[in-house]
Amino acid sequence: MESKCILEKSSVGTSVGGVVDFNYRPGRYNSRVPAVAKSSFTPGPIFYKCVTDGGSTAAVKNERTSSVGSGHSPGVGILQNVEKTAVRDQKDIGSTGILKRASPTLCLGMGRQLPGSSISLDIRNPGKQAELANSIRPAQGQNVPQAEIQPLPSSHIPVPRNRNPSGHADKEVMAATVLTSLSTSPLVLYPSCVPTEPASKTWKEVLSASYSSSTSGNWSWDASDQSVPSTPSPPLSKDANTGFLHSAQGDDASEDVSESTHFMFEDPIPRKRKNSMKVMFKCLWKNCEKVLSTSSGIQRHIRTVHLGRNSDSDYSDGEEDFYYSEIEVNMDSLTEGLSSLTPTSPTTAGPPPIFPPPLSDVSRSEYVGVNGSQSHTSSLLSQSAPSTLCHIRTDHAYQATAPVSIPVGPELAGIGSGNGIGPGTGTGTGNGISVSWQQPPPVIFKGAPGPVTHVRTVSIGEKRQPAVSTHATVSKNHALLTPATKSAPGTRKPRGEAKKCRKVYGMEKRDMWCTACRWKKACQRFTD
DNA sequence: GTTGCCGGGCC
DNA sequence: GGCCCGGCAAC
Ligand SMILES: [Zn+2]
């Protein structure tokens, strides 16, 4: 998917700083393009509000006054009708982020309380990895003690945890080997964050961040990254943190606004863990989808086929480890599917996110925990950092509705639900760990004050595929997708009490209505 | 009469 | 799929 930066495309009818650009077009009520509301409701830091054409608005507070862009791509992506809003900080740390450079605090507020805790490496691009090693460390060194900077090799070069210690050669040696070999390696490792925490923790974060099942195909691979795309990745639900991983990559990529990385949001509905999972080993070599049932087999495959090692030799220098990952094949996902019949079922992710091999391995294992329950996820997040998840909906939900959660600073939770943005309603759950809004036109994301909490992108309304494990696996799932029970025709739901856009805004302000209302469909903004 | 929105049509 | 609107049921 591609999120566009509305700001950049003024033609779309976006306004910043309260300027309204109405783009009327002939029609019954004339206005087609949603007007942008003024950003008057929030005193304090600068607020930018961007409106998408669905009428939804996203606002960003940026302490730096750097430019902010938001975009959405209606109907783009896995699910049609998905509207995505991306808000990003283009300059400064912002864009990429969080992870970029030496600001541990940038990880969406996650790291704030744990100095240096936000660092993690995303191993997607070996080449990047190498770069990272070179470029990041120095930067890192500024703020972090050397000891922390050079955590266990494993933290930099993720190796699937569950893998048998095949030739657990010296890890250091491995690391060195990897670094040197990565440049030519098919795998792409990518630095996502600067690791400052113990590896174990880091991975957890990574896991929790895991991948989004969502849409965005935009994993920001750079040219060198292309090796991975073909690699199937298991759809995982991820939480907000995910975005960070990406953003961490190069400055170049991240700075480019158009190249927005997206946050993946966790599934609105937690998925259950599947039972019959069989562990398989999948070759991660580019264009190689080989899946074997044994690690030795896969290692041999890699050695002989990809590494050009002597086929009859069992000698392993451990390098193969980087080229395969364990995957769990779901043997009976079907039963699960039954529970997720509804169209909006969050069971899965959209287009299989490209899954960085080693990471995938890790994430997979973590995946269970993450998906296990929403609450669990929250707890994870809260542990590592005070981030808040916000579930938001946009008007375009009509086209595809799916709550999205985005990480925001703790403060946000209060703002979102407390101060109420217009007619919206906010509900905070528990400790304000997650907030869900059904908000009126303006959807506002505000970064936490202080270091920087950037909400980089928001994707909305993503449908997920039922896929549970790797898609290397056979998809039995499709069988599960039986049509949801159809409500008996003729039964009309009683009208909800809530005032809908029509009534709230009136015909005069039809442009403020949510898309659904404009189309005379069930209102998505003010749901019952 | 107004509002909400289903169902269906047009592009 | 996006968009619009006739028409009907609920207010
Ligand atoms: Zn509405």
UniProtKB/TrEMBL annotation:
Gene Ontology biological process terms, A to Z: regulation of transcription by RNA polymerase II
One MF annotation (Gene Ontology) recorded for this entry: DNA-binding transcription factor activity
Keyword Transcription among UniProt keywords: yes
Start and end residues of each C2H2-type domain: 281-311
Compositional bias (Low complexity): 213-224
Domain of life: Eukaryota
Subcellular compartments: Nucleus
Transmembrane segments: none
Key words of the record: DNA-binding, Metal-binding, Nucleus, Transcription, Transcription regulation, Zinc, Zinc-finger
Region (Disordered): 213-253
Main subcellular location of this protein, as a coarse class: nucleus
SMART domains listed in its UniProt record: c-clamp (SM01366)
Gene Ontology cellular-component terms listed: nucleus
Annotated protein name in UniProt: C2H2-type domain-containing protein
